[in-house]
Design brief:
The protein is of the alpha/beta class. It has seven helices and nine strands, in the order βαββαβαβαβαββααβ.
Length: 239
């Protein structure tokens, strides 16, 4: 049985996108363990401009509009429907609604990993729009899914508020340890707090982190906060 991961983009681990990194690592480890795995990327630039990988990557162009699939992707789903398990990565994406209804049409089994999209904080952003979108589209994606993979307790709780089900499960991301790439001398015995990731202030709670750190330094003055990452919101962190 083949495993087919479906993502927006090309699962490029060099991009500042957590889903890309997770899918790349997941597919790599599955391939290394002997499983038949591939990644299908839906992108406006369906050109392979990345190094060789341990797994197969197929790229498909975007559909004519946000709720449509290109005919080549529809044909590929039909051809693999009875011999693969599909894994949709993401949530609140109209293209994935189109993927889900196509998978259902051909009786293909699929799993959904929302990648934090249903956590209680993320659900508060554009709450009214999400409520309407859920009733019209997102609910259908979840109803037809074989399993729903939540990555954290907050997402499990958030999902329960909008979709009562018995097919979701909690499994946090894995973590591959690496040797330090930078040796840091800390002769002054400073206490260092670090954040590494995409600079999404609201979703990551970075405003709360900065406020909490400011309060913490009043008790522990020999402290530093290191924030490593990038996004369009980076300017808010520059002094």
């Amino acid at each position: 049985m083949e495993i087919i991961h479906i993502v927006l983009g090309k699962a490029n681990p060099e991009r500042m996108n957590g889903v890309n990194k997770v899918v790349f690592q997941l597919a790599t480890k599955q391939a290394e363990s002997g499983r038949n795995v591939s990644v299908w990327g839906i992108t406006k630039d369906p050109i392979k401009n990345f190094p060789e990988r341990a797994f197969s990557t197929l790229l498909f162009p975007l559909g004519k509009h946000h709720f449509a699939l290109d005919k080549t992707l529809k044909a590929a789903i039909k051809a693999h429907a009875d011999k693969a398990v599909f894994h949709i990565h993401g949530s609140w994406v109209s293209t994935f609604w189109a993927v889900a209804i196509t998978l259902k049409r051909y009786n293909a089994r699929y799993i959904v990993t929302p990648h934090g999209g249903y956590n209680t904080i993320a659900m508060q952003k554009s709450a009214l729009v999400k409520k309407m979108y859920f009733q019209l589209f997102e609910k259908n994606v979840l109803r037809s899914a074989h399993k729903i993979h939540c990555i954290g307790q907050s997402e499990t709780l958030g999902l329960a508020t909008i979709f009562d089900n018995n097919k979701s499960f909690l499994l946090p991301y894995g973590f591959e340890s690496q040797p330090p790439s930078l040796a840091i001398a800390n002769d002054s015995q400073k206490f260092i707090i670090g954040f590494v990731g995409r600079l999404d202030i609201y979703t990551k709670g970075l405003d709360l982190l900065v406020d909490a750190f400011e309060a913490f330094t009043k008790q522990m003055p020999h402290t530093e906060l290191w924030i490593l990452g990038d996004s369009d919101e980076r300017r808010h962190f520059k002094l």
